[in-house]
Amino acid sequence: MSRPTAIITGASGGMGRACARQLGATMDLVLTDASASLEGFAKDLELEGFTLRSVTVGDFRSAEVIDALGREAAGGFAALIHACGLPPSAPWRDIVEVNHIATVRLLDAVAPGVREGSAAVLIASVAGHLAPSLPEVDALLAQPFTPGLLDRIEPLLTRELGSPAGAAMGTLAYAISKRKVMELSEVHAAGWGAKGGRIVSLSPGMIYTPMGRHEASLDAAADAQVKGAPAGRWGTASDIAAAACFLLSPAASFITGTDLRIDGGAVGALNALKAPPWIDSLRSRMA
Questions:
Q1: What percentage of residues in the chain have a pLDDT greater than 70?
Q2: Do the Cβ atoms of 209 and 10 come closer than 8 Å?
Q3: Which of the four pLDDT bands, split at 50, 70 and 90, describes residue 4?
Q4: What strand order describes the sheet that includes 5-9?
Q5: Residue 212's beta-bridge partner residues?
Q6: Which residue from 32, 1, 39 is spatially nearest to 16, judged by alpha carbons?
Q7: Mean pLDDT of the chain, nearest integer
Q8: In whole angstroms, what is the distance from residue 159 CA to residue 154 CA?
Q9: Distance between CA atoms of 60 and 203, rounded to whole angstroms?
Q10: What is the C-alpha separation between 267 and 229, in angstroms, rounded?
Q11: Is-contact 122 200, C-beta < 8 A?
């Protein structure tokens, strides 16, 4: 008997691996990641009895990777977890290309395969909840395939920060890109719903993965988010996988076009304390 298919991007990262092991118990897996470590992970999964339909290693921005996922989705799929993304420490242009533009391309590619019962979880970030509202940038990102898009965005980000600060540009671009991921779940909910599918986003806080630990080592504010969260601890990849599997399940059949924060209460605590706007904090760290 054929089993349902789960598509996972960013599958060799901490959250992607946890999700693959959860979903792979009942679904065939389609995995992709830019890291060659995916091949070793895929071999481990096969040795453990998981069924892999395909494994693609490649830059998520490439047409080859997106087209391959579109072909896998064409016959219908049960689950999509989009965990691929670049962190704040990456170059800001790469962040926008991977986190936003390539996500738009992915959703366009898998749309023909949405069926009754299909569900998607897009991994965003609590940074998206803290991102400033920049109408001019949003207007440009609404047309993600416009030639020269990044050149037009750059002076707007520089103006917002007050200077072309390299690391801060990445942090700001990351927050904006993750807010756009959340918005994409809202934008596509009606289209997916017309076919019987659902799409949501999930916003992790500080998660104890190699990427999360690396980012915390570079940014004192990230470390403070862990220490200041009401939950009093790091999140784990298993926390994210458990929430994602719930959102993909029939138990969440009335949940679509929305975002779920899984941050140990960090954003709620900031709101309750009426903390200064996040962008002000970013500017002060630059200074």
A1: 95
A2: no
A3: very high
A4: 52-57, 28-33, 5-9, 79-82, 119-123, 198-204, 259-262
A5: none
A6: 32
A7: 92
A8: 9
A9: 20
A10: 8
A11: yes
Question: Which CATH code is given to the segment(s) 5-286?
Answer: 3.40.50.720
Show the DSSP H helices in 48-126 as ranges. 63-73, 92-95, 102-110
Rg (CA), the chain: 18
What sign does the CA torsion over 33, 39, 42, 48 have? negative
Running DSSP on this structure, what letter comes out for residue 287?
-
DSSP string over 176-202 = HHHHHHHHHHHHHHHHHHHTT-EEEEE
Q: Which of 84, 56, 83 is nearest to 70 (CA)?
A: 56
Total Cβ atoms within 10 A of residue 165: 18
Q: Per this entry, what is the length of the chain?
A: 287
According to DSSP, the residues that pair with 259 across neighbouring strands are 201
Report which residue type is found at 121: V
From the CB of residue 233, how many other CB atoms can be counted at a distance below 10 Å?
12
Task: Please give the Cα distance from 154 to 258 (Å, whole number).
Answer: 29
How far is Cα 119 from Cα 110, in angstroms, rounded to an integer? 11
The residue among 48 and 226 whose pLDDT is bigger is: 48
Q: Which two tokens stand for residue 125?
A: 């970030």
Q: Give the integer Cα–Cα distance in Å for 80 and 207.
A: 21
Distance in Å from the first CA to the final CA of the chain: 61
257 CB burial (10 A radius; 0-12, 13-18, 19+): middle
Domain map of the chain by residue range?
Answer: 5-286
DSSP string, 160-175: HHTS--HHHHHHHHHH
What digits encode the pLDDT tens for the residues 217-242?
A: 777 667 777 777 898 889 999 999 99
